[in-house]
Design a protein that fits this description.
This protein is α+β, with helices and mostly antiparallel strands and 383 residues long. The chain has two domains: 14-118 and 361-380, Gcn5-related N-acetyltransferase (GNAT) (Aminopeptidase); 123-150 and 170-358, 3-Layer(aba) Sandwich (Aminopeptidase), CATH 3.40.630. Helices cover 34% and strands 28% of the residues. It has helices at residues 21-28, 40-45, 97-109, 128-136, 153-164, 194-200, 203-214, 227-241, 248-261, 306-320, 342-349, 368-380; strands at residues 14-18, 50-58, 61-73, 76-84, 112-117, 122-127, 150-151, 168-169, 183-188, 219-224, 266-273, 276-286, 289-297, 325-330, 354-358, 362-365. It has a nine-stranded mixed sheet. Keywords: Acyltransferase, Cell shape, Cell wall biogenesis/degradation, Peptidoglycan synthesis, Transferase.
């Protein structure tokens, strides 16, 4: 993450206090890389949580910001888990105590029994070629069995300092846990052309994109607003792929909240073949980053490759919009060909790009007895 504000001076003392959504959004707009989970609008999407925007001040100057989602404890509703997904937006390159100590003091004073945060920092990355080789190699079962193609010393240092300061890692080995995934698949866009991106894709992806544009008149991808049609296809996808779908009103709330914050923040892509909806996807953008957030596809007409057509339209629009990264979101780190999750990384690796491990999510207990009770409760319900 690149931080555009000047760092606080060594002798300055940062303070943390609540800020308005307007102040928070203004700060987000000064940054090149901020997760959509750290925008004020996301607090309006997560209606089951109480949200709060916080600002870090160096004197009178706002130098950091974060969206906090407060989750009450069952039967102890005066205490909350204070969650900062993929945040906060601070300068992670120096000492952490000047930033995180005032955060802890503020949240404890306002009833938090623990803080959970996810620094938006990578630690390692593996190229598409490495991932492909790892899947084919019989002795390799996980990404972390291979040396990384790239490492980020800032992310590694932050993980070490969080651990030393008493923070507890929450990201499970299989990659998916309570919060947001530690492993993601990303396609770098900065400095590249459409031809560059196509050359970086594997042969199957290129062939499927060509097939989608040619098959019996071709697949037509449009940006639309028919959330009901998307949701029907999404529920169909959930039944086929055996996951629990979100209700329609969740997507209606998401589109309303994010669009109100910025008309270009969220888009719905609909792929049709001869009038039939064959695929759909949701794209979110903040600053220099775009996310493939949700997708759906029809079991019928899979041969026309509507999902590839949707992805290519979103990648092209993200590139044209000046984005640095197209984020395909979470993967598990498995490379075991017999693991049912390996298909997810195989689909995403076809885009080229890279698998990236992030610092992951960390907890700081502020009231240890309440934290232990909460942890036992979550383990009892399978988290």
């Amino acid at each position: 993450m690149h931080f555009s504000e000047p760092a606080p001076t060594a002798d300055s003392r940062l303070t943390v206090r609540s800020i308005s959504a307007t102040e928070h959004l203004a700060f987000v707009r000064t940054q090149r890389s901020v997760s959509f989970l750290q925008t004020p609008a996301w607090g309006r999407v997560k209606t089951e949580w109480r949200s709060e925007s916080l600002g870090w001040y160096d004197g009178r100057r706002l130098v950091g910001a974060g969206l906090v989602l407060h989750r009450p404890v069952p039967r102890l509703r005066r205490f909350t888990l204070a969650y900062l997904p993929e945040g906060p937006v601070i300068d992670w390159t120096g000492e952490l105590a000047p930033w995180l100590d005032p955060l802890a003091a503020h949240l404890r004073a306002h009833g938090a029994f623990a803080i959970r945060l996810g620094p938006p920092l990578p630690t390692d990355a593996w190229s598409a070629a490495q991932v492909k080789e790892g899947i084919a190699a019989p002795g390799t079962s996980r990404l972390t069995d291979m040396p990384a193609d790239r490492t980020d010393p800032v992310g590694a240092r932050v993980a070490d300092r969080l651990r030393a300061a008493g923070w507890l890692p929450q990201s499970p080995e299989h990659g998916f846990g309570v919060g947001h995934p530690q492993f993601k698949y990303e396609l770098p866009l900065a400095g590249r052309t459409e031809d560059d991106l196509l050359r970086g894709m594997n042969q199957l992806w290129r062939r499927n994109i060509r097939k989608a544009t040619r098959a019996n008149g071709g697949v037509e991808v449009t940006v639309g607003a028919d959330l009901k049609a998307f949701h029907e296809l999404y529920v169909h996808t959930a039944e086929r792929d055996r996951f629990t779908p979100r209700p329609l009103h969740y997507f209606e709330t998401m589109f309303a909240a994010l669009s109100a914050e910025d008309p270009e923040r969220i888009r719905l892509y609909l792929a049709r073949h001869q009038g039939d909806l064959v695929a759909a996807a949701v794209l979110i953008r903040v600053g220099g980053r775009a996310w493939y957030s949700y997708g759906a596809s029809s079991t019928e007409k899979r041969e026309v490759r509507g999902s590839n057509a949707c992805q290519w339209a979103m990648i092209r629009d993200s590139l044209a919009g000046g984005c640095d990264v197209y984020d395909l979101r979470g993967i598990t780190p498995t490379l075991d060909a017999d693991d049912p999750h390996v298909g997810l990384i195989q689909f995403k690796v076809g885009t080229g790009g890279r698998a990236v491990r992030y610092v992951g999510e960390w907890d700081l207990p502020l009231r240890p007895m309440v934290y232990r009770a909460f942890d036992l409760y979550m383990k009892g319900r399978g988290r």
